[in-house]
Amino acid sequence: MAGTARAERPGCADIATLAADALRREVWLTPKPGLVDSANNGSHRDMDLPLFLRSIDAITPWLHQFFTLGQQDFLHPAQAMLTRIRPTGIACEQAMFGATQGVNTHKGGIFSLGLLCTAAGRLTGQSQPLTRRRLCAEVAAMTQGLVERELQSCRQPVTAGERLFMAHGMTGARGEVQSGFLTLRRHVFPHWYSETHPERRSLNALLRLMAYNPDTNLVARGGLSGLHFVQNYARRLLTSGWQKEDLQEMDQALIARHLSPGGSADLLAIATVLMAFPQ
């Protein structure tokens, strides 16, 4: 397949650069229904494209640090890594909040991409080649039991993620990393090269994520009905075929309902990174 032949086999330490580039590509991608892009601010009143770019600049050095920590600690058990990288994750979030004056632009992205960069560091330390399969498996190993520890055992929910788990059983980003990015492996990767143009490829991947990802951002804003509205809309476009004008109409529909599929945007950036590696 011509697309997979790219297998862009980047230098192992470059995964942090790939991650930062993926975040920039995601925010510039237009039109993205309900999300900040180069055309508008989507369903957000406190975010715009320049704010996202400042946030990415603040996050980027820490992505390299996640890789370094993974490489240094590759002999530690995988299950120990989440605790070991948590201070770096907190520092990265603080850098983001400093750049955005307290606006949460990339907290979910920091969590997932930080784990992905750490996984790459560990595999590099173990002299294993980086592949999508190995990276996903290592992230799953590092987060084994996370849902049980942080969600199922929670009796007094404080965060939005804890409340959504208690109300609807939704595991959000925690469930996605613990599963080794199952949503991507099941619904996005097999269809990645069905589009040949890079922009349509990314938009199609985003549409597939909106169709199948149980996005807690949507439920937090619009309840289960908001999630089902977006999923059904995206599935109709995937079935009938879509053009940019269809996504622009979907954008207006989501803005009118104050819906923003932020979890799917995070997963799009992760997919972009992982698809740079061989299977």
Structural description of this entry:
The chain has 279 residues and is mainly α. It has one domain (15-276). It is built from 13 helices and no strands. Residues 1-13 have low confidence and may be disordered.
Order of helices and strands: HHHHHHHHHHHHH
State the share of residues found in helices, binned by percent: 55-70%
Overall 3D shape: globular
Beginning-to-end CA distance, first to last residue: 13 Å
How much is the average pLDDT? Answer: 93
Low-confidence stretches: 1-13
Please give the largest β-sheet. none
What integer value in Å does the Rg equal?
Answer: 18 Å
Output the structural class.
mainly alpha
* Residue share in β-strands: under 5%
Number of strands: 0
Query: Number of folding domains?
Result: 1
Number of helical segments?
A: 13
Feature tags:
disordered N terminus; 66% helix; 279 residues; 13 helices; single chain; mainly alpha
Please sum up the structure shown:
With 279 residues, this protein is mainly alpha-helical.
Furnish the topology, listing elements before pairings:
Blueprint: H1 15-28, H2 49-72, H3 81-100, H4 107-125, H5 132-142, H6 146-152, H7 160-168, H8 172-178, H9 182-187, H10 198-212, H11 216-240, H12 244-256, H13 262-274
Helix pairs in contact: 1-2, 1-4, 1-13, 2-3, 2-4, 3-4, 4-5, 4-13, 10-11, 10-13
